[in-house]
Amino acid sequence: MLRAEGLRHSFGSVRALDGISFTLSAGQTLVLFGPNGAGKTTLLKVLAGLTRPEAGRADVAGGRRAVGWIGHQSLLYGHLTVRENLLFWAALYNVPKAERGRRAADLLARLGLADRAEVPVRFLSRGLMQRATIARALIHEPRVLLLDEPFTGLDLAAAAEFRRLLGELGGAGRIVVLATHNVDEGIELATDVAFQTRGRFVHFAPRGARGAAEIGEAYRRAVASG
Amino acid sequence: MTLAQRGRWVTGTALALLVAVYVRALVFTPVERFQGLAQKIFYLHVPAAWSAMLAMGLVGLASILFLLMKDYRFDRFAAASAEVGTVFALVMLTTGPIWAKPIWGTWWTWDARLTLTLFLFFLFVGYLLLRGAVAEASLRAHYSAVLGICGLVLLPFVHLSVYLFRTLHPQPVVLKPSAPSLPGSMLATLLFSFGVFTLLYVGFVMQRYALALAREARGDG
Amino acid sequence: MGDVLRHAWVIARKDLVLEFRSRTALVSAAVFTALVLTVFNFGRDPTAVATVDLAPSILWVTFTFAAMLALNRAFQLELENQALDGLLVSPISRTSLFWAKFFANWVFVSVVEAIGLPLFVLFFDVPVGGVLLPLVGVIALATAGFVAVGTLFSAMVIRTRFAELMLPVLLLPFLVPPLIGAVQVTAQLLGGRPLSEVTGWLRLLAAFDIVFLTLATLLFPATVNE
Question: Which of A87, A225, B129, C94 could join C221 via S-S bond, C-beta 3.0 to 4.6 A?
Answer without folding.
Answer: C94
